[in-house]
Amino acid sequence: MASSSLDWIGPELERLAAASLERVIGTTAPASPGHVERRGRTLLDLSSNDYLGLARHPAIIEAMREALLAEGAGSGASRLATGSRPPYERLEQALAQWHGKGGALVLASGYMANAGVIPALVGRQDVVFSDRLNHASIVDGIALSRAEHARYRHGDMDHLRVLLQKHRGKRRKLIVTDAVFSMDGDQAPLAELVELKREHGAMLMADEAHSGGIYGRRGEGLAAQLGLQDEIDVHLGTFGKAFGLYGAYLCGSRELIRWLSSAARPLVYSTALPPSVPAGVMAALELIQAGPERRMRLLAASRMFRASLTAAGLDVPDGDSPIVPLRIGESDQALRVQAALEEEGIAALAVRPPTVPAGTARIRFSLSAAHSDAELAAAASRIVSVCRRLGLGAP
Ligand code: PMP
Predict the structure, then answer these.
(1) For the chain, which domains are there?
(2) Ligand 1 centroid to 136 CA: how many Å?
(3) Which of 30, 204, 258, 367 could form a disulfide with 197 if both were Cys (CB 3.0 to 4.6 A apart)?
(4) ipTM, two decimals
């Protein structure tokens, strides 16, 4: 066969597969909320971020259907070209009000929001202080910005203080953190971050992808729960997780939003989400604001689930979120646990490097308000038996 300039890919793929690091997109079919169908079997879905079980909510689907008929399928271009249709304007006003901020800007995804906002805030003369376990889209946003990337050890405020001191001469400083860490499920020390940002005149950005809709009196997120909303200069939220949909938003002062409208490249250079999406998100926001039942049930069930695994001697870090990681170590073992869980009717993801640091492969259980307590209790006991069979946890 003739050689091609893509010949290098074959050996790279072999290397990935041999190290249990190749990622393969499986096939699933929808089932009832909180479940998924795979290879003809219905599994309990502990792999999705549909935390509140809204992805199939009839009110959201109806709002999207109406908007689809009224507004059409696609938005045609960037909103800077075609203008914002009513579902966008309604949603951005509601989001700004929810957070008590001057404005909000909807973008196509959390990845794009991070890739857009960070380069809009900092450049070559600046520095970004970023928790070592921050999401990949933050890391990519920092690389795109060309600012210096000062990574601090996970949650280590003494380390951050040292780095802030070291870079005190820089033009602009941005501290950025996941509010709830996506693969560990623990919370950032937001109160201490606020103190440090004040001391050092830095901007503070919180990515509330995994906390929006789950914490706070009206579901606004972790900063709101801690009474710190006013101290967060840049709030990033996503619609792909607790909202059950797709998309993201940035929220902050009126001036910040004005600036991002000119400077956030994914807004300027990318087609806007179809208007049916912000219409559906608005319906999801109303459900989230309507009452705390779903989020309270979710957090109570997550505590119970986490406690069952810990009591069985499994390596589950502390936390208070619907993300419950079971630490395994090596990628091949994590894949074996994932396969054995699927045999037991549980869909859960083995997360491997480079998503998590080398040697810390894990199963990431993410729970949903769509799951009943009984389902989760039964799942926990099946997980414990699978782990025992594979030699994990206390005998
Ligand atoms: N930030 C964090 C902390 C995330 O976990 C994710 C998604 N996994 C994103 C941003 C990206 O959001 P989206 O899926 O909407 O692109």
Answers:
(1) 21-50+292-390 (3.90.1150.10), 58-290 (3.40.640.10)
(2) 8
(3) 204
(4) 0.99
